[in-house]
């Protein structure tokens, strides 16, 4: 994704906060519109945004597989790429949790890198958390005539405490009604490598989750983690559901005219 100048500005050039967008692998490869929506929202919040071209995966797949050597190597690249910025914003609770919670843990036995990891962790926020703190919530963000239900992803909710922030932001969308589903905090069954290691269990979990989504009688399913959304979108399509799936950033940025998640790969 080539969305803005990757060079962090100096304080003399701009008083706006220097924000770097960590795009994430899934957004870059599977749903770039989430990245463009995040960029639009960050700029609306007054940030000077850069998308550093040297960014890679956050290292979570290697970390979850027990490959700490490669996970640390990837983390070092991320730290070096993003440490010059005032804030790092991630449109994913999962990747955000990796940087914020697990980077400092990985370098606990390396003082020099631990300091750098902890400094980056302190400046990193999940997208809706950053926006809830920086957007003018008295100004409508977009318009959508219909209803939505919101999925609380495991990493965002349990690692980062993301719960009220997306709902506060959705309240700024003119015409949108939020219908909460049953067991809203329950896992969708994706869990990254969990869904490939234990497909039968994962399938049973997402089947129950999508039953709750459909019972909410809503037009849209929203969330803050693309992996979760892709998993649920696939199940909903196989069930013949008419519920459309979007990342919350796309709705807040008014970018729901195009294909929903899962529709663009049909």
Q: Which features does this protein show?
A:
single chain; alpha/beta; Rossmann fold; 4-stranded parallel β-sheet; globular
Task: Describe this protein's structure.
- There is one protein chain.
- The protein is of the alpha/beta class.
- It folds into two domains: 18-131, no CATH class; 139-252, 3-Layer(aba) Sandwich (Rossmann fold).
- The chain contains 13 helices and eight strands.
- The protein has helices at residues 25-30, 32-44, 60-64, 68-82, 93-106, 111-123, 127-134, 154-160, 164-170, 194-197, 199-215, 226-238, 248-252; strands at 18-21, 48-50, 87-90, 124-126, 142-151, 173-178, 220-223, 244-247.
- Helix 12 (226-238) links the parallel strand 7 (220-223) and strand 8 (244-247).
- Helix 5 (93-106) crosses helix 8 (154-160).
- The radius of gyration is 18 Å and the shape is globular.
Write the layout of secondary structure elements.
Layout: E1 18-21, H1 25-30, H2 32-44, E2 48-50, H3 60-64, H4 68-82, E3 87-90, H5 93-106, H6 111-123, E4 124-126, H7 127-134, E5 142-151, H8 154-160, H9 164-170, E6 173-178, H10 194-197, H11 199-215, E7 220-223, H12 226-238, E8 244-247, H13 248-252
Number of domains: 2
Largest sheet: 4 strands, parallel
Q: Averaged pLDDT, please?
A: 93
Order of helices and strands: EHHEHHEHHEHEHHEHHEHEH
What is the radius of gyration computed over CA atoms, rounded to a whole number of angstroms? 18 Å
State which percent range the strand residues make up: 5-15%
Spans where pLDDT lies below 50 across 5 or more residues:
2-14
Report the structural category. Answer: alpha/beta
End-to-end distance, in Å?
A: 23 Å
Strand order of the main beta sheet, please? 2-1-3-4
Fraction of helical residues: 40-55%
Annotation, overall tally of beta strands = 8
Shape: globular
User: Number of helix segments?
Assistant: 13
């Amino acid at each position: 994704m080539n969305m803005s100048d990757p060079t962090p500005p100096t304080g003399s050039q701009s008083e706006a906060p220097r924000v770097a967008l960590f795009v994430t692998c899934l957004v870059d490869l599977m749903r770039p519109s989430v990245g463009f929506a995040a960029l639009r929202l960050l700029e609306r919040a007054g940030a000077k945004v850069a998308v550093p071209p040297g960014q890679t995966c956050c290292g979570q797949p290697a970390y979850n597989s027990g490959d700490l050597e490669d996970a640390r190597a990837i983390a070092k690249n991320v730290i070096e790429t993003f440490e010059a910025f005032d804030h790092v914003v991630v449109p994913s609770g999962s990747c955000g949790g990796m940087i914020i919670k697990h980077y400092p843990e990985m370098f606990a036995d390396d003082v020099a890198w631990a300091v750098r990891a902890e400094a980056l962790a302190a400046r990193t926020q999940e997208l809706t958390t950053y926006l809830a703190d920086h957007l003018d919530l008295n100004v409508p963000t977009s318009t959508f005539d219909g209803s939505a239900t919101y999925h609380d992803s495991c990493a965002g909710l349990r690692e980062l405490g993301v719960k009220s922030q997306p709902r506060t932001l959705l309240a700024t969308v003119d015409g949108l009604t939020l219908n909460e589903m049953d067991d809203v905090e329950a896992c969708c069954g994706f869990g990254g490598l969990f869904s490939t290691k234990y497909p039968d269990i994962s399938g049973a979990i997402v089947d129950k989750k999508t039953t709750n989504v459909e019972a909410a009688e809503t037009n849209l399913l929203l969330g803050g983690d693309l992996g979760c959304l892709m998993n649920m979108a696939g199940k909903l399509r196989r069930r013949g559901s008419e519920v459309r799936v979007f990342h919350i950033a796309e709705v807040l940025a008014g970018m729901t005219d195009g294909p929903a998640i899962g529709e663009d790969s049909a």
